[in-house]
Amino acid sequence: MFKRGSIIVILIALAAAALWYWRASREDEAPQISTVSLSRGNVTQSVTATGIIQPVTSVEVSSQISGLISEVLVDYNTPVKEGQILARIDPATYQQLLLQARAALASSVANLHLMELNAKRTKELFEKHFMTQQDVDTAVAQVEQAQADVQTKQANVEAAKVNLDRCTITSPITGIVMARETDPGKTVAASFNAPTLFIIANQLTDMEIDASVAEADIGNVRQNQPVEFNVDAYPTRKFFGKVIQVRANPTTTNNVVTYDTMIAVKNNDLKLMSGMTADVSIIVARHNNVLRIPNSALRARVPEELVTVRAKSPAGAPEAKESSLSPEERRRLIWETMRDVGISRGTPPTPEQIKEIQTRLKAKGINFDPSRFGGREGGHEGGGSPTATTTRTVYVLLPSPNPAKPRIEAVQVKLGITDGIYTEVLSGLKESDQVITSAIAPSSGGSNTSNPFGGPRFGHH
């Protein structure tokens, strides 16, 4: 019995020693922290959309008369000049109509000559008192009627000439034949609707993109903003253009409102073809050589027990209530607030409206800087849209003599534009600062990752 009790005491002592050793080793274990060094670079904020490439000018060539197509002189992709003959309609019917109109005109001219002679004789007999004044008036009226009939017949002749000329279909512009909708022997019926025979596009060296921009983004789009786009036919090549028009007429599809944005494109090598789908990025702001932070550092969550220096709000900065907002959500809140205070696109806000915007956005944790509304600053390109500064909390790894006990400071920073990967840092950090992208405390056992999108990271970098 004594021996069994001794064994139990020894086991308890061993367990206590093992627990003490495990806790001591855990206290000496360093937390797993991943960092990245801040650097300078370019940050480009863009609005994405999808559009269709099309010629700047496209003309449907139709026939104004009915008849049988006797000859087609062009085909697909045929270059044509203005006034060049494209096709001919059998002119036989219209030649006969012209002959009939000329014959009717000759008859009317002869009748007018007769009426003039009768009127002359009537006047002579009236002077000799063989005719009454009524007879003279009747003769003069008959002459005038005959003159009007001649004019009508002359108009008929001209109309017959026009219809005969319309048997020859010519190109109204200089360009290229995009479509040919007729063949020799085909009958054209133009009684009600003018049938389309050809589609001719202007020179294809100048094209345009009809892009559909969502209503949440259209407020950022301005004329002359640069554009980058890709097409599926050339996936590794980037093409360029610029915004030339933002159309005010909305398009609603399945309760989604979009606005047509026209983009001018140079196509000197004729690689781009009509109808191609373009994935468009409209550059609304481009800030060069600015301090930038990876967005993964903005999503980092450091366990409270690892933070040794708490965040201090910059002077005049609101609390970072919007830390969970994405850049798209911040832009949406800004434009919704602008719309609520009565600001429409293209209309500059009044000082009272700017103050109201700042008040409303501050309540949502967004610091709106009116000095950057619609303007450009040194080193900044693009622009044309309001830029809001937001306040976020990031974590900086400070130098520490003991690697097992790192010094981590929570810092509130002001942020500018973002491209989805990097975000511009306006204040709060400096170049070469080591910002934390993930941190795992030793007691977490590797289950408490600080970056919900990055997965666990191991090692102290």
From TrEMBL:
Keywords: Coiled coil. This is Macrolide export protein MacA. SUPFAM superfamilies: HlyD-like secretion proteins. Residues 367-389, 439-461 are annotated as: Disordered. Residues 439-452 have a biased composition (Polar residues). One of its GO terms (molecular function) is efflux transmembrane transporter activity. It comes from mine drainage metagenome. Gene3D superfamilies: 2.40.30.170, 2.40.420.20, 2.40.50.100, Helix hairpin bin. Residues 136-163 form a coiled coil. The gene is macA_3. Residues 98-165 form the Multidrug resistance protein MdtA-like alpha-helical hairpin domain. Residues 58-196 form the Multidrug resistance protein MdtA-like barrel-sandwich hybrid domain. One of its GO terms (cellular component) is efflux pump complex. InterPro entries: Beta-barrel_RND_2, MdtA-like_BSH, MdtA-like_HH, RND_pump_MFP.
